[in-house]
Amino acid sequence: MEKKILLTALCFGLASIVLGAFGAHALKKVMSPDQLGSFEVGVRYMMYHALFLLFVSSTSFLLPEQKNVVYNLALLGTLFFSVSIFLLSTSGISGVNFKFLGPITPIGGLLLIAAWGMTFFYIITKKG
């Protein structure tokens, strides 16, 4: 389980760096400041959750089944939140209308909140 969580964290971190650089250099020329700002939020939250998953993979405060719950919440939350923002903010460039993904973004946010909340709950209720 730890290896899967660690590899996901590393993928999220790598993707954040690549997408951040892409946004700062290539997209800056073709997106409005608001669109670029939204794109950057997606990048930032992906990196935050890469770091969060690094913690989850390495902590001894969580049992394997608890890590699995937190991992799944963080994975789906990050994908729903960040990827929907990436697609929505670049729809003007791609020419594809991704407005139907609008409701996915807050669902992703709720999943991320749940991941952090469950981690807090698991740690605070741990005996010893």
UniProtKB/TrEMBL annotation:
Coarse class of the protein's main subcellular location: membrane
Cellular component, GO, one term: plasma membrane
Entry membrane topology: Multi-pass membrane protein
Protein location: Membrane
Keyword terms of this UniProt record: Membrane, Transmembrane, Transmembrane helix
Domain of life of the organism encoding this protein: Bacteria
Transmembrane spans: 45-63, 70-88, 100-124
Pfam hit, one: DUF423
Family, as annotated: Belongs to the UPF0382 family.
PANTHER family reported in the protein's UniProt record: TRANSMEMBRANE PROTEIN 256
Name of this protein: DUF423 domain-containing protein
